[in-house]
Design goal:
single chain, 312 residues, alpha+beta, binds fe (ii) ion, three-stranded antiparallel β-sheet, 19% strand, eight-stranded mixed β-sheet
Length: 312
Amino acid sequence: MALITIETSSDALRSGAKPSDEKAREYCAHLERGDILFIPGIPFDIPHDDLQFLLQQRQSGGAFHKNVAYRTNEDRLTGFAGENAADAERTRAIMRSYSQSATRLLSTLLAPYREDWKLDYASYRPLEEDGRDLSLHKRNDLLHTDAFPSRPTNGDRILRFFTNINPSVPRKWMTTSPFDALAQQFAGKQGGCPLPEPLGASTVQSTLRGIKQVARSVGIPITVRSPYDDFMLRFHNFLKENSDFQKNCPKDYWDFPPNTCWMVYTDMTSHAVLSGQYALEQTYIISRHAMVTPEKAPVRILEKMVGAALVS
Ligand SMILES: [Fe+2]
């Protein structure tokens, strides 16, 4: 796993410079093998007053008691604890603008993906990560690969773009081997995390999935998980629960300085956030069909191990 710095300067990107098609494919390939793409700057405008607003709200004990999510498709904030409607509206406007800027940037840096992605949530993370009191499965400081319990991807990929807006303190991460190596080590009965059953192999599971699909089609909000999504969620929990792995696996440490950006496939790159406060983030769900190296996608790795389809 490596940290790859984008070659085009932030100033040039801000002025609209675009990498060549070949370079954009190269960046995608790096992400798909589990590398982190790093930008030593913020290549779009976040007005100074907006940054101060985000930073000061927390310091004054205001509206940011926890992470704030911005649901891009609904243009709606969740997790905003303040009572001041003007503050909520301003936060929403800042998040909307951040989401749009990040998306404009990635549509050139990662051009092969731009026709085949969905914008997931954006978030503002105002809390100090070091020492957060969270339940084991929610802890960010334990190494894991991401899986969304309520938003299964059916084999599509979770790409996250981060910006450290802390004016003086880096955001510190730790990583270990990427998903393909971890799956070789831990997926399967002997490794401790049983492989998924092939799609349609278990009558009980298929029937249950069928019932859920019908319920969903008539508007009952039920999550239908493919065998792939079910495994990814179990694997996320398995890694966090595995204290021997957490303690003894080889580790790399990364500092993301103030006013920098980075992006990573968090379903491929095992990661933990050790410390840091004040980050913005935008998540993309990238179609598995848009991969430039599809054989490296977690769904393909698992399907190869199982010898059958895991998504429909
Ligand atoms: Fe994560």
